[in-house]
């Protein structure tokens, strides 16, 4: 599936030129997404990277899925996109770190904090992954600048991801597409066996 150049770090496993594509739509503040993310990291990433059974055959794309009924969803996805800009190789490690601490960004914990306070907390998390030398650049990307309603430096990337989801009728997380079609059989409960069986049945190259 298509991916604009600035979002190339969202290919978390496999070659960008691999013929098969798994598009996995995840929200950082969705518990089911967190469960799937851990399975992806332990099963799909090793299988699809160079040297894996499906290396060169399957690529895995993380598709940010903002779910607006969670007030912090926009903020955490902005953070992920900012890491993709300043430290592309650290995008997936940051995503995993955020998933592991997702409960800190749930509705009730963030209900008494301002967006600036949430962004400050995300900056500290990002610093733990990308290092202090890049933390200021990360923070700068999230700073609101320009017109009073103009967003920040990753707003256009965020808009792209939202438009992509909408045009493909993806409304909830997690949702998975195999070669452009929704694979309804895939579940957040899947482990190693289910993913391996799926790839064995689907990979045709």
Automatic annotation (TrEMBL):
Domain of life: Eukaryota
Cited Gene3D superfamilies: Glutaredoxin
Coiled-coil portions: none
Domain Thioredoxin-like fold: 12-109
Database matches in InterPro entries: Thioredoxin-like_fold (IPR012336), Thioredoxin-like_sf (IPR036249)
Protein name: Thioredoxin-like fold domain-containing protein
Organism (species): Lentinula boryana
């Amino acid at each position: 599936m298509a991916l604009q150049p600035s979002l190339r770090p969202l290919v978390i496993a496999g070659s960008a030129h691999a013929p098969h594509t798994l598009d996995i739509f995840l929200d950082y503040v969705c518990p089911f997404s967190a469960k799937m993310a851990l399975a992806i990291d332990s099963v799909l990433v090793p299988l699809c990277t160079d040297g894996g059974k499906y290396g060169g055959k399957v690529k895995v794309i993380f598709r940010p899925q903002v779910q607006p009924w969670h007030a912090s969803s926009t903020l955490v996805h902005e953070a992920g996109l900012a890491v993709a800009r300043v430290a592309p190789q650290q995008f997936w490690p940051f995503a995993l770190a955020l998933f592991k601490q997702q409960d800190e960004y749930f509705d009730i914990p963030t209900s008494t904090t301002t967006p600036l306070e949430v962004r400050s907390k995300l900056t500290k998390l990002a610093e733990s992954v990308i290092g202090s030398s890049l933390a200021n650049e990360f923070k700068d990307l999230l700073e609101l600048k320009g017109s009073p309603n103009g967003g920040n430096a990753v707003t256009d990337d965020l808009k792209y991801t939202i438009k992509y989801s909408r045009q493909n009728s993806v409304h909830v997380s997690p949702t998975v597409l195999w070669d452009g079609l929704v694979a309804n059989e895939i579940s957040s409960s899947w482990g190693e066996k289910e993913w391996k069986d799926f790839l064995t049945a689907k990979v045709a190259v």
